[in-house]
Design brief:
Chain B: This is DUF2170 family protein. Chain B: InterPro entries: DUF2170. Chain B: It comes from Pseudoalteromonas luteoviolacea. The complex is a heterodimer of chains A (about 230) and B (about 140). By secondary structure, chain A is mainly α. Chain A has 2 domains: about 150 residues, Helix Hairpins; about 55 residues, no CATH class. Helix content of chain A is about 85%, strand content about 0%. In chain A, helix 2 runs antiparallel to helix 3. Chain B is of the alpha+beta class and about 140 residues long. Chain B has one domain: Yope Regulator, Chain: A. Helix content of chain B is about 30%, strand content about 35%. Chain B has 3 helices and 7 strands, in the order αβββββαββα. In chain B, strands 1-2-3-4-5-7-6 form a 7-stranded antiparallel β-sheet. In chain B, a hairpin with a 7-residue loop joins strand 3 and strand 4. The longest helix of chain B has 22 residues. The chains are: A mainly alpha (about 230), B alpha+beta (about 140). Chains A and B meet through helix 3 and helix 4 of A and strand 4, strand 5 and helix 3 of B.
Chain lengths: ~230, ~140
């Protein structure tokens, strides 16, 4: 059964208790050992593959040199026939037959090697797939385990803080309030900055005699007199 | 990146306008980094590391907080929201609903920072979006 399926069954069965191991630590260790064994077997298979491939190349080379020998001796035999050296030609032909015999033997060996190579390659591919798959499953188990541990650690922390007492809705309200406060502060700071900008501009304008003039004592007095005279 | 290294780096790191506080927890032989984004300590992000991945988890609410009779509907909604939600997915741990993201252990500080900021924003948005399903 795949780990995910096991987890699914466990979760469905209500493994809710914090710390309740879905897969026990021993099973994880066994699993890890299996992966290590598979990895070792894979390395072994890869080493065998290189050896077999080297032998395959050697055998092919031997066959090629036999082919050359056969070709060469066929020329010799033809030459002997040309010179009417019937006996010699026969002897050369015997040699060719020997080469061909050897070649057919080597060919069989080569076929075995080639078959071995493709078999090993297939095995290696299969083993690699299995290892990757096992590692994925192991990582799932370990993640589940570490999430459980993390949950325990988190629960411990939350139980000692206020957050355990607060509902999500209250939390949300607080956060929104904080965001609003922050925005208000930003707005206020901005307003303050704008105002001080205005002020310094006004100061400059006044110094240059532009805009509203500050009321002068003489003007005020003139205004009061004007009222009295009415 | 190791968690203690991440903790140190996060404290001096700012990204996407967010700042981080982080606390290293090791109560049960499992290292956990509690990260608080922008002072939102109501929704801390818990970061853990396994051989293969870095998990960032944020707990949203517990099963008991769901309005009666509405759990199936909520589950359906969460499944539908899973794909459109950037970088994060909904999950359930024990009786708590959570939102999480997983990263490669080779992730950089920038990638982790982005993940954490996104997760934090997603968790707030998600709570906001589904608050109708929750009781006070």
């Amino acid at each position: 059964m795949s780990i995910l399926k096991k987890l699914f069954t466990a979760v469905k069965g209500g493994v809710n208790e914090v710390g309740e191991g879905i897969v026990d630590a021993n099973a994880i260790r066994i699993f890890e050992q299996e992966i290590r064994d598979a990895q070792a077997a894979l390395n072994e298979a890869k080493r065998s593959l290189t050896e077999v491939m080297a032998k395959e190349i050697q055998t092919s080379r031997a066959i090629k040199s036999l082919d050359e020998e056969i070709g060469k001796h066929e020329t010799y035999a033809a030459q002997a026939l040309d010179k009417d050296e019937e006996t010699l030609a026969l002897e050369i032909a015997g040699k060719i037959a020997e080469f061909e015999q050897e070649k057919s033997e080597q060919q069989q060996v080569l076929n075995t090697f080639s078959a071995n190579v493709s078999k090993l390659k297939e095995q290696i591919k299969q083993a690699e797939k299995t290892i990757v798959e096992n590692q994925r499953q192991l990582s799932m188990v370990k993640t589940t385990e570490s999430v459980q541990k993390a949950t325990m650690a988190v629960n411990d922390t939350m139980a000692s803080g206020d957050s355990a007492m607060t509902s999500a809705k209250q939390s949300l309200e607080r956060i929104k309030q904080r965001q609003m406060d922050r925005q208000d502060q930003l707005d206020a700071a901005q307003q303050l900055a704008d105002e001080s900008n205005d002020k310094s501009l006004n100061d400059k304008m006044r110094a240059a005699g532009i805009g509203e003039e500050a009321a002068k004592g003489a003007d005020v007095l003139a205004r009061i007199r004007a009222k009295q005279n009415k | 990146m190791e968690l203690n290294e991440l903790s140190l780096k996060l404290s001096q790191y700012e990204t996407e306008g967010a700042s981080f506080e982080s606390f290293f927890i090791n109560n049960v032989g499992q290292d956990v980094l509690q990260v608080i984004v922008d002072g939102n300590d109501e929704l801390p992000i818990f970061v853990t590391r396994t051989e293969e991945q870095i998990l960032c988890i944020c707990y949203l609410f517990s099963e008991q907080e769901i309005t009666a009779q509405k759990q199936a509907e909520l589950n359906d909604t969460l499944l539908r929201l899973n794909v459109p939600m950037p970088l994060s997915a909904f999950a359930k741990i024990d009786n708590k609903y959570a939102i999480f993201g997983a990263l490669s252990t080779n992730s950089t500080l920038e990638q982790l920072g982005h993940e954490i900021v996104t997760l934090s924003a997603n968790s707030i948005d998600a709570l906001d979006a589904i608050s109708d399903y929750l009781t006070e």
